[in-house]
Amino acid sequence: MADIATSAPASIPAPLWRRHAIALVIFAALAVVPFIWPERYVLSLVGRAMVFGIAALSLDLILGYGAMVSFGHAAFLGLGGYAVAILSAHGIDEAAISFPVAMLVGAAFALVTGAISLKTRGVYFIMITLAFGQMAFFTATSLSAYGGDDGLRMFSRSDVFGTRLLRNETSFYFVVLGVLLGVYLLLRAIVGSRFGRVLRGAKENERRMRALGFDPFRYRLAAYVISGAICALAGALFANLTLFVSPAYMSWQRSGDMIAMVVAGGLGTLNGAIIGAIGVLLIEEWLAELTQHWKALFGPLVVLVAIFARGGLVKLIDRGAGR
Amino acid sequence: MSSTLLIIQTLNGLQLGVLLFLIAAGLTLVFGVMDFINLAHGVQYMLGAYLAAMFVAWTGSFVIGLILALISALAFGLLLEIVVMRHLYDRDHLEQVLATFGLILFLNEAVKIIWGAAPLQVPVPDMLTGSIVIANGVLYPVWRLAIIGAGLGVALGLYLVVAKTRVGMLIRAGASNAQMVSALGVDIRRLFMIVFGFGAMLAGFAGCMAAPVLSVEPGMGDNLLILAFVVIVIGGIGSIRGAFVGALIVGLTDTLLRSFSVDLLRLGGLSAGDARTIGPAIASMSIYILMAAVLFFRPTGLFPAKG
Hints:
heterodimer, A: mainly alpha, two-stranded antiparallel ribbon, 2 strands, 1% strand, B: mainly alpha, ABC transporter involved in vitamin B12 uptake, BtuC, 11 helices
C-alpha cells in the first residue's frame, strides 16, 4: 500500500482525514505552547515561527500548487511590514486600517509584477521575480524619509479596534495563531476548489488545460495576487512582532530561506509549509546558540534537504506513521 | 555633468562590465549546456579574491599569486562539481536553487571562519600602479585599465575557443540541444565538468582582478551574482555573445546612472531636493527595470542560444 501511495502523482491528494490529523496536531501543539512555556522569549520565538508559517503558506500556494518558483517572495513580507510601519509613523496605529492596507499593497505589487513575470517560464520566472524582489529592496534602502538603510522603528504595536490587544505577549501570540489558522483554512479551501484544481492542472499539463478552455495565465496571476496579499499580512504581523522594519526584510537571502522552509516541510501540502517554517526557525535558533558561525552548519543542511528531502518532512511523517 | 567625469564613469562602467562578463560567461554556459542554475557562482568570485589575497601575501608576487589562485579556483570548482552539483543535474530548478543557496550560506561563513570578517586589502602590482593621462587633464588608474584589457582579452579568447575549436563546437551544440549531442556519443557529463571548472576559474579570475580595487570581504559575490543573472537573462541564456553584450549594457547603465541620475532628473525639470531623493532609487532599480523590459518584449533574451 505504501508504495502505491508514494508513487501516485502528487496531484492526487492524500485522504482527507490524514491531512487533518497532521494539521490538528500542529495547531493543538501551537495552542498549548503559552500554557507550558509562558516565557516572553518562547512566545516571541514561536510567534515568529508562526509568522513565517503564514509567509511559507502563501509561498506554498504558488510554489507547491502552481510550480511558480518565486525567488522574490520576501518583498511581500517587506511591503506589508513597511505599510504598517509607515502608517504608524504618520499616527495611524489601527490594525483594522493598516493591515488591510498592507494586504492591498502586497496584492497590487503582485498584480503588476505578476502580470510581467508570468509572461515568462522556468528559469526566467525565477530570475525576474528575483529582480523584482531586488527592486523592492533597493527602493526600501532609498526611502530616506523612513530610515533608508537603517530601517524604521515603530513606537508601539498596532491597536485592534481601539484596544491594546496586541500589546500583551500572550494575546499577541494567540492573534498570530488565529491568523495562521485562518490563512491555513482559507488556502485549504482554495486548493480544494475548482480554482485550485485548475491551478494544479496547469502545473501538471498546461496544454491540456488550454485545450479544456482554461487560460492558465489568469489563474496563475490570481494565485500570485492572493499569495502576495497573504505574505504582506505576515509582514504586517512581523513588523508588530519586532517593532522594526528594514530593507533586510526583503533581502534575497530571506526569499531563499522561505523556499527552504517550504521544500523542507513538503511542497504542495500546506501542512509542510507550517512545519518547515517552524523547523527552519527552531534549527536556526538552536544552531545560533551553538556557534556564531551557525550558517556554516545551516548551509550544508539546506544542501542536504535539497538533495535528499524529496517530499519533505510531511512525507517522512507519513512514512513514519506506516501509511 | 562634466565631460571629464563622463569619461571616467564610462571607463568605470566598462570595468564593471568586463568583471560581470567574466562571471556571467561561466554561468551562462553552465546553464545553457546543463540547464543548471548555479547560485553559488558568485562565491567563486569571492573565493578568487580571497585566494589572490592569500597567495599574493604568501609569495609576495602578484603574478605567482594570481597563477596559484587560478589553479586553486579551478580545483575548487571541480571539487564542488563532484561533491554537490553532479547530484542535481536531473532535478528541478527549485532543488538546484535551494542546494546552491545552501552552498552560498556555507561558503560565505567558511570564508569568515578562515580569513576573518574584516575586509582584506590586496596591493596593486608594482608595475601597474599609478595613473596615466587618458585625455587632456583626465587621470585614470593603470590597474583599472588593466582590468578592462584583461577582460576584453579573455572575451576574445573565449570567443575564439567557442567559435573555432572542437570543444567550443561541442559547447555550442550542447547549449542548443544537449540531448542530441549526448545521443551522438559525446560524454556530456565530462563536457559539463570542463565547462563548470573553467566557468568557476573565470569567476575566480574576476575576483583576483577586482581584489586590488575592492575590499575583499565575505558576501562580496552576492550582489555581483545577481547582476550576473540580470546579464545572462538580458543576453539570452547559453549565449557567450549575449553575456558580453548584456554585461556591458548592465555595467554601463548601472555605473552611469549611479553618478548622473540626479543631474538627469534635474535636467528633466525636477527640483534639486526631489531629484536627490528619487535619483539614487532609480539608479539602483534601473537594471532590474531594464531586465523586466527585455523579458517582456523578448522573453528569451537578446541573443537566445536555443533555436
